[in-house]
Q: What sequence folds into this?
């Protein structure tokens, strides 16, 4: 199973187009959106190309392939524009290996505050806009960074799960960080 992760689109049509092109090129089966999809949020500058209705239209074309969770900037009004559910604070994905992915935005749950995880599970979150792929004690922490408003001198990025490797990739094809999920 190959999964594609994106977070913190913040309503930018241009970066959403770029992200969807990377998703198509990746061959991933599903697109996992980790929140802050349509709204830029009051603490962020308005991104260039801010067009939330256009972002909704772009994403709705992939509605049957999207798994999504709510970010701190997402609202009921945003959900009205989208053809896939995105208002859950978290979700679980069970991989064929039995490993679990705990999907969340990161404002309520994150690598240091989460439900009980089993050895080898992965907490997957966005929110910080910083790429992370690392072992974190008995489990793994993964953050694909931000497609639109990267922080900390990082590039805009997305994540991939392919075989046993979680990678954060820039849109220029550079691997920013990765971790191999041990058995």
A:
């Amino acid at each position: 199973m190959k999964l594609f992760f994106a977070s913190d689109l913040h309503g930018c049509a241009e970066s959403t187009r770029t992200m969807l092109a990377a998703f198509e090129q990746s061959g991933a089966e599903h697109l996992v959106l980790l929140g802050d999809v349509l709204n830029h949020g009051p603490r962020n500058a308005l991104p260039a190309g801010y067009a939330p209705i256009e972002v909704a239209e772009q994403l709705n074309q992939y509605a049957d392939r999207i798994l999504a969770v709510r970010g701190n900037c997402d609202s009921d009004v945003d959900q009205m524009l989208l053809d896939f559910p995105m208002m859950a604070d978290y979700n679980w994905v069970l991989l064929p290996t039995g490993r679990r992915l705990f999907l969340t935005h990161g404002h309520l749950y994150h690598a240091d505050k989460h439900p009980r995880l089993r050895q080898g599970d992965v907490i997957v979150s966005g929110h910080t806009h910083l790429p992370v792929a690392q072992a974190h004690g008995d489990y793994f922490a993964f953050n694909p960074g931000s497609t639109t408003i990267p922080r900390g001198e990082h590039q805009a990025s997305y994540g991939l799960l392919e075989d046993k490797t979680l990678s954060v990739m820039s849109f220029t094809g550079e691997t920013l960080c990765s971790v191999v999920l041990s058995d």
